[in-house]
Amino acid sequence: MDVIKTDRLTLRNFRQGDAIDLLAYLHQPRVSCFFSLKLEDLGAAEAEVETRGRSDEQIAVCLRSTGNLIGDVFCILEHPDTYAVGWNFNADFGGAGFASEAARALFEYLFSVKHARRLYAYVEEDNIASQRLCERLGMRREGLFKEFISFKKDNEGVPIFENTMQYAILQKEWVAHNDYPDKLDTARRRGALASEAFG
After folding, report:
1. Structural domain of residue 105, as residue ranges?
2. pLDDT tens digits, residue range 10-42?
3. What stretches of the chain show up as alpha helix (H) in DSSP?
4. Distance between CA atoms of 188 and 180, rounded to whole angstroms?
């Protein structure tokens, strides 16, 4: 994928050297939806980095100041023009707006460069931080799926099912949410953003 730069962050493909930082936040995942990604040791992290590096779906989010990996975002294409999106960040870097900054850059890239029509995200009902981020991004809550998915089991091995919310945003809603001038030609805007922000 194209390298995306914001004021404080670089979004890029995973590469060698990311394993230690990835292990730092996937050794003990905070949110249940990432339990299946738990990494036991550095060897597992290195294998995961190699797998992620072969795909444009998993995107590393790094500090521009140090180059260190602090989290990741993902975008999975559902043909022809819809993407499932999400994010996961190291808790040590929480509260500084990095997730919001990275997600905004990803959304702009998908809408302006990849010509996405619709983006959506699944968020567990108890994940208030991600719900608030979706809302700050201008996403609509489209529904609540009761006992939609299970990420863990109880002490007797019975799956614990969680309620999941779906948020979404259309390209035209993103444009309106970000106050693009009505007279700005879409093709011109896409071309300018592609060359200036993502070149």
Report:
1. 4-196
2. 999 999 999 999 999 999 887 776 777 899 999
3. 19-26, 42-53, 98-112, 128-136, 171-177, 186-196
4. 12
